[in-house]
Every structure is written in structure tokens, then in C-alpha cells.
Specification:
mainly alpha, 5 helices, 84% helix
Length: 141
């Protein structure tokens, strides 16, 4: 029964993590249009920081810990699909790291990217998520 509870925890953490990774770049798209120093820009800074610190970071940690436990408890570390999934999750974690950096850049009023850049960056977690879900559900190898 512990395995099922950990799986539920993992799924909940992944949902929260993905929600944050999909929403942060969207906030940044709108933040780009706000004049530096404006009330709107300052509001976006607070929203981005809180989303990152209160949701994205804790959700990522829980998703990783629960996922690694599930892989260990299920004996999945020998499965090829898990190796591929882990590669995609590492890429997702890198996307998280880039988003963290961008939040810090906006906080310092040092953003160097356009709205178009953030629109494209917004698609990266989606593509990775699709690959991860297919690997977990289908287990093709």
C-alpha cells in the first residue's frame, strides 16, 4: 500500500511542478511588456518569486524524491524506459533551472529576453512532459 501512496504523492508533485513550469514563462511574457520599475513589473516580480519558491521548487524536490523511491521500490532501475525518462526529467530540471535564473534576472531588472523567447521557452516543458508520460504509460522498452 505504501507504493500506491508514494505514487499518488509523486503524481501530485509532478502536477504542481508542471503547473509552475508552464505558468512561469507565461508570466514572463507579460512581464516583458511591463515598464521597468512600474507597479505592474513589481507585481510580476512577486508573483514569479512566490510561484518559484512556494510551488515549483518544493514540487520538484518531492517529485524527484518520490520518483526515485518508486523506481527503487519497483525495481525499475534496470528498465530502459526509466533511463530515457530520467534523461527527460533531467532536461525538465534544467528547464526549471533556466526559469529560476530568469526569475532572478527579472528581479534585478536585468531581463535580456523577448516575449517571443519566453513564448518558445514555454513549450519546452510541454514537449518534455509528453515524452515522459508516454515512456511511463507505454514503457516501450
Amino acid at each position: 500500500m505504501l507504493y500506491e501512496w508514494m505514487k499518488a504523492l509523486h503524481i501530485l508533485a509532478v502536477i504542481a511542478w508542471m503547473a509552475a513550469l508552464l505558468y512561469l514563462p507565461r508570466l514572463m511574457v507579460y512581464h516583458c511588456a511591463a515598464p521597468v520599475g512600474s507597479a505592474q513589473s513589481e507585481t510580476f516580480k512577486v508573483m514569479e518569486r512566490r510561484l518559484l519558491k512556494a510551488i515549483a521548487n518544493p514540487a520538484m524536490v518531492v517529485a524527484w524524491l518520490a520518483g526515485l523511491w518508486l523506481a527503487w521500490a519497483g525495481g525499475w532501475f534496470v528498465a530502459g524506459w526509466l533511463h530515457a525518462k530520467l534523461a527527460l526529467v533531467i532536461a525538465l530540471s534544467a528547464a526549471h533551472g533556466f526559469q529560476s535564473r530568469w526569475v532572478k534576472d527579472f528581479a534585478r531588472d536585468a531581463n535580456a529576453h523577448s516575449q517571443r523567447f519566453f513564448r518558445i521557452a514555454n513549450e519546452v516543458p510541454t514537449v518534455l512532459m509528453i515524452g515522459i508520460v508516454i515512456l511511463v504509460v507505454v514503457k516501450p522498452f
